[in-house]
Specification:
29% helix; 252 residues; 6 helices; alpha+beta; 5 strands
Length: 252
C-alpha cells in the first residue's frame, strides 16, 4: 500500500502565510462592503421616517410636533416593575415618538452604523445606559420643531429636518449643528475634542464620527422629504439657512 506523503512544517507555514495574505487583501474590501450596506439601510430608514413625518403633517394641519429635548422611548431606566412607553409630550420623550405611529416600526429610528448616542453622561449615565438610546440615532433640527412648516419655511428642499447625529435634538447653531454662526470658526463645538463635555465624559470616543457615520458623511432628511448626505466639514461650507430657513440676499 502506497503511503501518503505528509505536509512538511515549511509547507504548512507557506499555506498559513498565503491564507493570512489573502485575508489581509479581502478584509478591507469586506469591511467596505459591509459599511456601504449599512449606509443603504440608514438611507432607507431615513426615507421611511420622512414619509412618516409628512403623514403626520397631513393629519395635523401641516404643523410639526414640539419635541422635548431628550431621547428616551420608555421609562425602563427608572427600574420599576412596569415599563411604559412615553407619550410624545413627556419630558423625557425622544422626538421620534410623535411620528412613530406612522412609521409603524421603531427599528427605523436606528442607524446600523451607530456606536453610541448621547447618553447624558453629565447626569451620571454613560455608556452602560446605551440600551435606552438604541433607537435614537437621528438628531432633530430644533428650528423645525413646533412649526407650521409652510409658513415658516419657503424652500423645503433646503431645510434639514433630521440627520445622523450623536445628539437627539440639535438646538445650537455652533454647538450641535453643522453650520457656524457669525464670528464662529468651527461647528459642533460641544462635541469637539477639548470641549468640556468631551474632556469630562467622552474621552476615547470619536464623537464627531457619530455625526458623520458613513464614509465621513451624515445622511440627512430634508423638509421636502428627499434624503442626501452632507460631507464632514468644520462648518464654513454649510449655510445657516439649512437649519433656520432664513435665506439672506447675500446667500441667494
Amino acid at each position: 500500500m502506497k503511503r501518503q506523503r505528509a505536509f512538511t512544517l515549511i509547507e504548512l507555514l507557506v499555506v498559513v502565510a498565503i491564507i493570512a495574505l489573502l485575508m489581509g487583501i479581502l478584509m478591507p474590501s469586506l469591511k467596505k462592503a459591509r459599511d456601504q450596506a449599512k449606509g443603504v439601510v440608514c438611507v432607507a430608514h431615513i426615507k421611511g421616517l420622512g414619509v412618516a413625518l409628512h403623514m403626520y403633517l397631513d393629519d395635523y394641519d401641516r404643523k410639526t410636533h414640539s419635541a422635548p429635548n431628550q431621547g428616551l422611548w420608555d421609562n425602563a431606566w427608572e427600574g420599576g416593575s412596569v415599563i411604559e412607553d412615553y407619550g410624545p409630550n413627556d419630558a423625557y420623550a425622544y422626538w421620534g415618538i410623535a411620528y412613530a405611529p406612522y412609521a409603524k416600526n421603531k427599528k427605523i429610528f436606528r442607524c446600523p452604523s451607530t456606536v453610541r448616542n448621547d447618553d447624558w453622561p453629565e447626569n451620571g449615565w454613560g455608556v452602560l445606559y446605551q440600551r435606552y438610546f438604541k433607537y435614537c440615532s437621528y438628531g432633530l433640527n430644533s428650528y423645525v420643531a413646533d412649526s407650521k412648516i409652510d409658513r415658516a419655511f419657503r424652500k423645503h428642499d433646503e431645510v434639514v429636518v433630521f440627520q445622523d447625529h450623536i445628539e437627539q435634538k440639535l438646538d445650537g447653531i455652533d454647538s450641535d449643528m453643522f453650520c457656524i454662526g457669525p464670528g464662529a470658526s468651527i461647528n459642533l463645538t460641544q462635541w469637539r475634542p477639548g470641549s468640556s463635555l468631551v474632556s469630562s465624559y467622552w474621552q476615547g470616543h470619536d464623537t464627531i464620527r457619530e455625526c458623520f457615520r458613513h464614509s465621513r458623511s451624515s445622511n440627512t432628511c430634508w423638509l421636502d422629504g428627499h434624503v442626501s448626505a452632507i460631507k464632514e466639514s468644520t462648518g464654513e461650507d454649510v449655510p445657516t439657512y439649512w437649519y433656520d430657513g432664513k435665506r439672506t440676499e447675500a446667500s441667494m
